[in-house]
């Protein structure tokens, strides 16, 4: 990073000097009241989302990444370590670099006693995302950025400490998430000696290999590979989505990475964003109950209309930016298609059938600008197939992933010296006054 940052700083300086006053678009009243949709108002380095093509990470599409990013030893799928390296540096890591990162994460993955006590003391019926956000925020007591800021460091040194905290947090997220999972699955056993053994970090495993072992699901190689792909692909989706934007906004006040990412998790916990994968599963299982296992297209169509006519959204469909099927959805579908045990699973078959029928129904319904599936349309259903039946936990896995993109940008925010975020707001009367001039 120390080698790469000066080049990017120079690029920013030049952009500002040569094009500082160039226009990227106009702001309409519709932009202001429509959630800033379509407004180009944020700098985000690691990925850019094209409405039709989907996400590119430093210019690489998902199929490109699948070709060039290293898997785990013996695996085939991209792992989050490879993706993080690409997101942070813009470069494709060597296998040795990826293994070194896995090793560093394993060395730093163990939680201290205070954190363990805090998580184990939380009410097990509290939503897992609430538990996750609380635990992540609590880690700020050891923030090297917060400590260095208090001492009084130079602005040019901020990124170093933000990087250190970010890598520390990414290393610990699976341990936090697995501990929450253990406590949900084993009520009354939080803090037992049994939990201490099963939640230990294995220094020879990659980040997700460890996570799956800690969840007690380590024997399942197919699930491990799925989670590697899932966590790598959910990592970044440019800057404007609620979780990424929140981390960037909170971080702009120089809140440390733990606080910034904790705030992001609470945005991810909303049903229109990350919680949709929990909602999709609930909805698909209800549909399955109503239409049966080998449902006709007519029955599925009828069910879709009943959801829409009751005023609800079809979870897993639509998007704030995308206007075609989400390539992350396609990648996860391809993962299923390549494995007969998945493609023959009733829930996964139903998900596929719905994805072929829902776009037409949503077009006829005529409201959503994007009638196609997003990543949440399928992600949770695979987890269900693998025996992870605690729906409320699903968004925690998304939260383990989103850190790699949100924290990457936090490092760049500080390396580029970006200021506190503070857009101008207007009241309706103020808008009225401006437009009638
Ligand atoms: C990882 C992720 O976060 S991906 C997104 C996960 N979320 C979901 O899948 C939830 C279902 N989808 C949605 O609610 C929306 O499509 C969102 C939140 C993703 C995007 O919202 P927007 O950008 O506002 O969508 P859009 O401009 O198409 O909305 C226009 C109208 O269509 C409706 N609409 C959008 N998607 C859907 C849907 N899947 N089902 C029914 N109606 C929909 C909106 O509610 C809105 O209705 P309104 O005019 O009565 O308020
Ligand atoms: O981009 C968005 O608004 C939502 C999304 O798909 C994500 O955050 O992964």
Automatic annotation (TrEMBL):
GO-annotated molecular function: acyltransferase activity, acyl groups converted into alkyl on transfer
Keyword annotations: Mitochondrion, Transferase, Transit peptide
GO annotation terms (biological process): carbohydrate metabolic process; tricarboxylic acid cycle
Coiled coil: none
One GO CC term, this protein: mitochondrial matrix
Gene3D superfamilies: Citrate Synthase, domain 1, Cytochrome P450-Terp, domain 2
Subcellular location: Mitochondrion
UniProt record similarity statement: Belongs to the citrate synthase family.
Name recorded for this polypeptide: Citrate synthase
The organism of origin for this protein: Serendipita vermifera MAFF 305830
């Amino acid at each position: 990073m120390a080698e790469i940052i000066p080049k990017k700083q120079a690029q920013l300086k030049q952009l500002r000097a040569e094009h500082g006053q160039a226009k990227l678009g106009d702001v309409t009243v519709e932009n202001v009241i429509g959630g800033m949709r379509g407004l180009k108002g944020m700098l985000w380095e690691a990925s850019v989302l094209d409405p039709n093509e989907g996400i590119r990470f430093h210019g690489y599409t998902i199929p490109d990444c699948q070709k060039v990013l290293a898997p785990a030893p013996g695996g085939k799928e991209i792992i989050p370590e490879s993706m993080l390296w690409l997101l942070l540096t813009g470069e494709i890591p060597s296998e040795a670099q990826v293994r070194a990162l896995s090793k560093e994460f394993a060395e730093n993955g163990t939680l201290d006693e205070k954190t363990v006590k805090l998580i184990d003391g939380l009410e097990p019926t509290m939503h897992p995302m609430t538990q996750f956000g609380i635990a992540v925020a609590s880690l700020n007591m050891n923030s090297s950025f917060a400590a260095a800021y208090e001492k009084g460091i130079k602005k040019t040194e901020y990124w170093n400490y933000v990087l250190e905290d970010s890598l520390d947090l990414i290393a610990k997220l699976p341990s936090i998430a697995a501990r929450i999972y253990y406590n949900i699955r084993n009520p009354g056993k939080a803090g037992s000696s049994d939990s201490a053994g099963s939640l230990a970090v294995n220094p020879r495993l990659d980040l997700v290999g460890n996570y799956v072992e800690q969840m007690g699901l380590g024997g399942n190689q197919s699930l491990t590979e799925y989670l590697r792909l899932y966590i790598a692909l959910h990592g970044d989706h440019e800057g404007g989505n609620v979780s990424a934007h929140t981390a960037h906004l909170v971080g702009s006040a120089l809140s440390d990475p733990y606080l910034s990412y904790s705030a992001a998790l609470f945005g991810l916990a909303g049903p229109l964003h990350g919680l949709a994968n929990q909602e999709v599963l609930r909805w698909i299982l209800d549909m399955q109950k109503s239409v049966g296992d080998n449902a006709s297209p007519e029955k599925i169509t009828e069910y879709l209309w009943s959801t829409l006519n009751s005023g609800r959204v079809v979870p897993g469909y639509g998007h704030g930016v995308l206007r075609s099927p989400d390539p992350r959805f396609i990648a996860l579908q391809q993962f299923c298609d390549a494995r007969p045990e998945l493609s023959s699973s009733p829930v996964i078959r139903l998900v596929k059938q719905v994805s072929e029928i829902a776009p037409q129904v949503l077009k006829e319904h005529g409201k959503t600008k994007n009638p196609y599936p997003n990543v949440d349309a399928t992600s949770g259903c695979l987890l269900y197939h693998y025996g992870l039946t605690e729906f409320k936990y699903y968004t925690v896995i998304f939260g383990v992933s989103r850190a790699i993109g949100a924290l990457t940008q936090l490092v760049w925010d500080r390396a580029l010296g970006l200021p506190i975020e503070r857009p101008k707001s207007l009241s309706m009367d103020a808008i009225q006054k401006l437009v009638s001039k």
